[in-house]
Amino acid sequence: MAQHASGYQPILNTLSAMDVGDWRKEIIDYLEDPSKKVERRVRFQATKYVLLEDELYYRTIDEVLLKCLGDDDAKSLMGEIHEGVCGAHKSALKIKWMIRRNGYYWPTILEDFFKYFKGRQGCQKFGNVQRALASAMNPIIKPWSFCGWAIDLIGQIYPPSSKGHKFILVATDYFTKWVEAIPLKKKSHRPI
Prior knowledge:
CATH architecture of the largest domain: Orthogonal Bundle
Helix content: 25-40%
Largest sheet: 4 strands, mixed
Structural class: alpha+beta
Strand content: 15-25%
CATH topology of the largest domain: Endonuclease III, domain 1
Strand order of the largest sheet: 1-2-3-4
Number of domains: 2
Distance between the termini: 78 Å
Radius of gyration: 28 Å
C-alpha cells in the first residue's frame, strides 16, 4: 500500500476486513439481506445508511453521502486531521465539522475525539498567550429612528402591582434608546 508524503495511509474499508465488533457490521448485514430477522433498533438505524459497492455510507439530511469508517481508520484519520502535516490542533467540534466536510462519518466522532485529546499531553497544556494589541470598537448605528427594535418580556414581578399586573412588556428602539413599557396581568394578556 502506497503512503502519502505525510506518512498517512489512505483509508480502505472492505467488508472482508471488517472485525466482528465493528459498529457497521449489523447495518451492512441487514442492508445486504433485509429479510433477515434483526432487532428493531438496527432496522431503524439502517434507514440512514446506504450500501454502495460494498461500502457503507451515511446519508445526511441534505442527501449527501458520507463514507462510514471503522475504528482503525477513524483513529488514523483523527491523528492526521489533528496533528498531521496540515493539522491545526483544533477543538473536537471543529474537527468533527472538518471530518464530515471531507466526507467521512462514524457515530461516536465527538466521544472519540475527547478521549483522543485526553491522551495527548500537548493538548492538555495551555498554549502561548496571545499578546495582540486591543483595537478600538466601532459601534454600528442604525441610520433611521425606530427602524430597529428589541422587545422583551420581564419575568414575573413579586409582589404584583395594586391593579394585579405581574409582568412588564418592554420595547427599546436601537437608534434613540427610547423605551416603552406596558404592564400585563398575564403573559398572554393583551395590553390596553
